[in-house]
Amino acid sequence: MKNAQLRKHLSFGIKERWRYNEAKEILGSLGSEVFIEKNVDFMRYPKNISIGDNVVIKEGAKICPCNQASSISIGNNTTVGYHSFFFASAGIEIGNDCLLAPFVYFVDSDHGIDKGMKINEQGNISLPIKIGNDVWIGTGAKILKGVTIHDGAVIAAGSIVKDDVPAYEIHGGIPAKKISERK
């Protein structure tokens, strides 16, 4: 059974069913057997959020398509850790069977920083983020604009990922670099 250790401790009670039904009303699509803990926020454009089957979203997660053209999708059997943040100006796609630890941060845009103009008056530079299937992202990792993390990759806790990660490689550090491969 996928995520057996986590799933054996989940309890689909009245509150969890209520949160599921509330999310089903506001999201673009919501799969079956999705477990949504309290204090999860689907922000700004919730109709642009798609969540697959058997997903677990832990307390404090913030999922925000920041404009009408952006979208966020989370694949089947994926777990989103406590207080993880998704902010999409272009798009964020998470594959199937992923484990996202607590405090993981996805942001697909930066502000311009040209000299001679206030930073808060400069536009965003946005590029989509794509996470493949069977990816594990450790606690506190930050995934930046334009990054693709391919199938089976692992990101070490606390890493800042600004470049693509090939399949089945383990990357870590600031900025994240290859440290090993899955065997």
What does this 3D model show about the protein?
- The chain is mainly beta and 183 residues long.
- 9% of the residues lie in helices and 33% in strands.
- It contains two helices and 22 strands.
- The protein is globular, with a radius of gyration of 16 Å.
Question: Which terms summarize this structure?
Answer:
mainly beta; single chain; 8-stranded mixed beta sheet; 33% strand; 183 residues; 6-stranded parallel beta sheet
The counted number of beta strands is 22
What's the rounded overall pLDDT mean?
Answer: 95
Q: Report, as a whole number of angstroms, the end-to-end distance.
A: 22 Å
Q: What low-confidence regions span 5 or more consecutive residues with pLDDT below 50?
A: none
Note the overall shape: globular
Radius of gyration: 16 Å
String of helices and strands: HHEEEEEEEEEEEEEEEEEEEEEE
- Largest beta sheet, briefly? 8 strands, mixed
Roughly how much helix do the residues carry, as a percent range?
under 10%
Strand content: 25-35%
Structural class: mainly beta
The number of helical segments is: 2
Main sheet: which strands, in order across? Answer: 2-5-8-11-16-19-21-22
